């Protein structure tokens, strides 16, 4: 047993309202640069829908992820090492930029400078690739809220797997949102596909990153990832991907997408897993067994043997404590309501989802019945094949049982808690019907519905003895025209965004960074204070009791 | 031995070799981030799918041919049974085939670069300069082969150019060996030398990143954050001594 820690995420899809706040804040933080205009490390898809890039889930076409060879061993679906090298001069499975969308801007100048005329001036769209006029015909969420889906929906690779009768009814039946980031897989096929060895999984927290200095732009990671969450920066010629906001995670802050989520549906925490068991679990022959196999790779952080093994691997006590308090572990293993996205890709993804119950509730309510009554809901989950079948294609390789169980637990929670709120009655039979106790239901309710900040995000900071190094650590995206737009001056910079270059800044930074003690002891120059921390003298000393 | 001959066949090649070697070391140390193929496949893949493999496989054949023809003394080849006639046939016909493959591939790639909007916009001035020298070296090399070997009586460069190169490599230059070489071979050598001087400053550096180690490494790469002050952190640039400050003076929140 080799215990490793993995920072992972769970998203509660029931609470996603499809507002795209996560996408926008992520974009502002990471990909608001030329070369990655078309890149959304976080995107929100309306399902059913074709996704971003279009039809990325059709692995018959894109050939991402792993599959089993004749001897039942894992191999990259798009071929092994020699096969990859043989096609290095032109990668036939690389999505073109048109499969994402052609990025554009608008000719805003026209609005201001066009001469007076009869008609209101129009800002025409201009391609960011060629600078020429273009017709906008697709984007990252073109089919948002099923918009235009009558034309595109038949391209949804998941619907294609379902029966005709189901396909005909889907639009009446349900719709939900699926926010996606990099899965930070335990068995990442992008890493395995990288010819340069530039992609790696961090040994400490399992975050999958691209070394920008080592990437040579062979593009195999883009086609290797079945979720298409590695992107090619067409300006720098390097691969980029979701970093799980590691500079924030390292200091104990949640990712930008999680922090800004208005529905508070994201959970972040550690899980411990057995790295030696990953390959065997990913090679299970029956796709329906992959979910259980992945669950079994995760280790119980309260098991003394696991704790002992974790210590032996050098995992610190506060990290073990964080794994014990992890909301991820509770949602995946204690309650078993969270499910992985497309386990059949065999990458062991570590961003899991709680399937949405809302479509079911809506259907029951629309028929005039009580949509919060446990029996009605249980019956509806059994009867409504459409959402369950579709969700099963997403989360369990087509096996409806785990999805049904998860939905039944959510339904039980709704009914049980309604009883508590309205009549102060604790109907244990509802809880028992899904194999839980009333107390467990209330705990789950607290985690899912109350969703306190400190319970959603249990993120141990990187270690104190390393903290000084981390403070001024370089960032893999901090290059020319990167998010930070270039380096700091010779005296470094304050924290936060880069400051404009001016002689005042230069001198104040020089004073601050080169002095070995405060320039005026006991006083603080507020102009130099960057808003972080509490410099001595800023506030009067606390009274000692 | 004239001054011109000394300049062309000793000074220029050595200068180009020095720029080639030092340039690569310098670029690798200070511009790892710029070291990439800078692929344009996301813009356009239909033409690239033909042009790129044609050009690359062709040029690999060309390089292999040059190694055999220039670096391996012909006595060694005689020893393993490859006589002058066999060598000549192989070099001429394989060489011509490789040249056609390379030039056709290059033609497709340049056509693509010029006519596909996003690819043309993404072309840097350095790319254009590089194309000129690469094209010139390929053009004169092909021309020399066609004029002297295919349609001419055959020129035995293994008695002049090859020993000249080997003498250069062991630092005992003999520029007079190149003086009587036909003009297209001379032009080929000069343009190739200049291409080598240009090499480290172009995207051609990706040749040295040919991912051979991929064949031998495990699939999943783990790396510790601590290896170099944190994963992704670049080493401090030469001349920038890291300025450390007392922690108390930083005004940062202590966690």
UniProtKB/TrEMBL annotation, chain A:
Its EC number is 1.7.99.4. GO terms for molecular function: oxidoreductase activity. It comes from the Bacteria. Keywords: 4Fe-4S, Electron transport, Iron, Iron-sulfur, Metal-binding, Oxidoreductase, Repeat, Transport. Residues 508-545 are annotated as: Disordered. InterPro entries: 4Fe4S_Fe-S-bd, Nitr_red_bet_C, Nitr_red_bet_C_sf, NO3_Rdtase_bsu. It is an enzyme of class 1 (oxidoreductase). PROSITE patterns: 4FE4S_FER_2 (PS51379). Signal peptide: none annotated. It is found in: Cell envelope. Its main location: other. Its cofactor is [3Fe-4S] cluster; [4Fe-4S] cluster. Residues 7-35, 173-204, 206-235 form the 4Fe-4S ferredoxin-type domain. PANTHER family: NITRATE REDUCTASE BETA SUBUNIT, RESPIRATORY NITRATE REDUCTASE 1 BETA CHAIN. NCBIfam families: narH. This is Nitrate reductase beta subunit.
TrEMBL record, chain B:
It comes from Glutamicibacter protophormiae. Its EC number is 1.7.99.4. Its main location: membrane. The chain crosses the membrane at residues 6-26, 47-72, 92-111, 131-151, 183-201. InterPro entries: Heme-iron_electron_transfer (IPR051936), NarG-like_domain (IPR023234), NarG-like_sf (IPR036197), Nitrate_red_gam (IPR003816). PANTHER family: NITRATE REDUCTASE PRIVATE CHAPERONE, REDOX ENZYME MATURATION PROTEIN REMP FAMILY, RESPIRATORY NITRATE REDUCTASE 1 GAMMA CHAIN. One of its GO terms (molecular function) is oxidoreductase activity. It is found in: Cell membrane. Keywords: Cell membrane, Electron transport, Heme, Iron, Membrane, Metal-binding, Nitrate assimilation, Oxidoreductase, Transmembrane, Transmembrane helix, Transport. It is a multi-pass membrane protein. It is an enzyme of class 1 (oxidoreductase). Residues 7-225 form the NarG-like domain. This is Nitrate reductase gamma subunit. It holds the Pfam family Nitrate_red_gam. Residues 231-255 are annotated as: Disordered.
């Amino acid at each position: 047993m080799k215990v490793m820690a993995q920072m992972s995420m769970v998203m509660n899809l029931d609470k996603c309202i499809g507002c795209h706040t996560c996408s926008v804040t992520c974009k502002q933080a990471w990909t608001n640069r030329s070369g990655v205009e078309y890149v959304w490390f976080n995107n929100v898809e309306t399902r059913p829908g074709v996704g971003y890039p279009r039809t990325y889930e059709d692995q018959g076409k894109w050939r991402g992820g792993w599959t089993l060879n004749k001897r039942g061993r894992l191999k990259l679906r798009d071929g092994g090492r020699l096969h990859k090298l043989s096609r290095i001069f032109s990668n036939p499975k690389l999505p073109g930029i048109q499969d994402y969308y052609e990025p554009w801007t608008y000719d805003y100048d026209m609005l201001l400078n066009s001469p007076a005329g009869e008609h209101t001036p129009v800002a025409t769209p201009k391609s960011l690739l060629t600078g020429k006029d273009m017709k906008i015909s697709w984007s990252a969420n073109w089919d948002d809220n099923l918009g235009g889906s009558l034309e595109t929906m038949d391209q949804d690779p998941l619907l294609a797997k379902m029966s005709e009768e189901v396909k005909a009814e889907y639009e009446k039946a349900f719709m939900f949102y699926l926010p996606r980031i990099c899965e930070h897989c335990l068995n990442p096929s992008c890493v395995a596909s990288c010819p340069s060895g530039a992609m790696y999984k961090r040994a400490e927290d399992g975050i999958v990153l691209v070394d920008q200095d080592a990437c040579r732009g062979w593009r195999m990671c883009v086609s290797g990832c079945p979720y298409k969450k590695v992107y090619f920066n067409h300006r720098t010629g390097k691969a980029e991907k979701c970093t799980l906001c590691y500079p924030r995670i390292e200091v104990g802050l949640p990712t930008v997408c999680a922090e800004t989520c208005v529905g508070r549906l994201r959970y972040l925490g550690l899980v411990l897993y057995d790295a030696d068991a990953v390959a065997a679990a990913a090679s299970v022959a029956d796709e329906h067994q992959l979910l259980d196999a992945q669950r079994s790779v995760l280790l119980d952080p309260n098991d003394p043997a696991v704790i002992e093994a974790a210590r032996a691997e050098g995992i610190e006590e506060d990290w073990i404590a964080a794994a014990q308090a992890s909301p991820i572990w509770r949602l995946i293993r204690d309650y078993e309501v969270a499910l992985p996205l497309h386990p059949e890709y065999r990458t062991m993804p570590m961003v899991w989802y709680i399937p949405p119950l809302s479509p079911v509730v809506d259907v029951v309510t629309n028929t005039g019945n009580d949509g919060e009554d446990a029996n009605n809901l249980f019956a509806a989950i059994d009867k409504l094949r459409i959402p369950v079948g579709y969700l099963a294609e997403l989360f369990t390789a087509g096996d409806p049982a785990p999805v049904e169980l998860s939905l039944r637990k959510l339904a039980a929670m709704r009914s049980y808690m309604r009883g508590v709120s309205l009549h102060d009655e604790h109907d244990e039979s509802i809880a028992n019907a899904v194999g839980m106790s009333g107390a467990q239901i209330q705990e789950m309710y607290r985690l899912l519905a109350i969703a306190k900040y400190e319970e959603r995000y249990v993120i141990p900071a990187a270690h104190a003895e390393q903290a000084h190094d981390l403070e001024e650590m370089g960032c893999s995206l901090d290059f020319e025209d990167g998010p930070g737009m270039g380096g700091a001056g010779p005296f470094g910079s304050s924290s936060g965004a880069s400051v404009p270059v001016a002689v005042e800044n230069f001198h104040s930074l020089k004073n601050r960074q080169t002095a070995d003690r405060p320039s005026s002891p006991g006083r603080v120059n507020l102009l130099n204070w960057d808003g972080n921390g509490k410099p001595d003298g800023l506030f009067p000393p606390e009274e000692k009791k | 031995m004239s001054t011109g001959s000394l300049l062309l066949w000793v000074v220029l090649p050595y200068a180009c070799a020095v720029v080639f070697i030092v340039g690569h070391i310098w670029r690798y140390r200070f511009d790892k981030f710029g070291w990439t193929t800078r692929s344009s496949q996301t813009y356009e893949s239909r033409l690239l799918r033909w042009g790129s493999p044609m050009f690359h496989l062709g040029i690999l054949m060309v390089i292999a041919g040059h190694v055999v023809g220039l670096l391996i003394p012909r006595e060694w080849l005689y020893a393993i049974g490859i006589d002058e006639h066999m060598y000549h046939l192989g070099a001429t016909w394989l060489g011509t085939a490789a040249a056609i493959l390379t030039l056709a591939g290059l033609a497709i790639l340049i056509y693509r670069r010029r006519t596909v909007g996003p690819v043309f916009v993404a072309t840097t001035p350095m790319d254009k300069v590089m194309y000129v020298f690469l094209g010139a070296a390929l053009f004169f090399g092909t021309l020399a082969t066609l004029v002297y070997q295919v349609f001419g009586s055959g020129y035995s460069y293994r008695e002049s150019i090859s020993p000249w190169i080997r003498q250069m490599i062991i630092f005992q230059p003999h520029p007079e060996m190149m003086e009587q070489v036909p003009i297209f071979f001379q032009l080929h050598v000069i343009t190739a030398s200049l291409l080598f001087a240009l090499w480290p400053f172009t995207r051609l550096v990706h040749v040295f990143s040919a991912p051979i180690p991929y064949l031998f490494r495990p699939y999943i790469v783990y790396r510790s954050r601590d290896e170099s002050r944190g994963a992704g952190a670049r080493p401090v640039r030469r001349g920038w001594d890291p300025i450390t400050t007392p922690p108390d003076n930083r005004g940062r929140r202590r966690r």
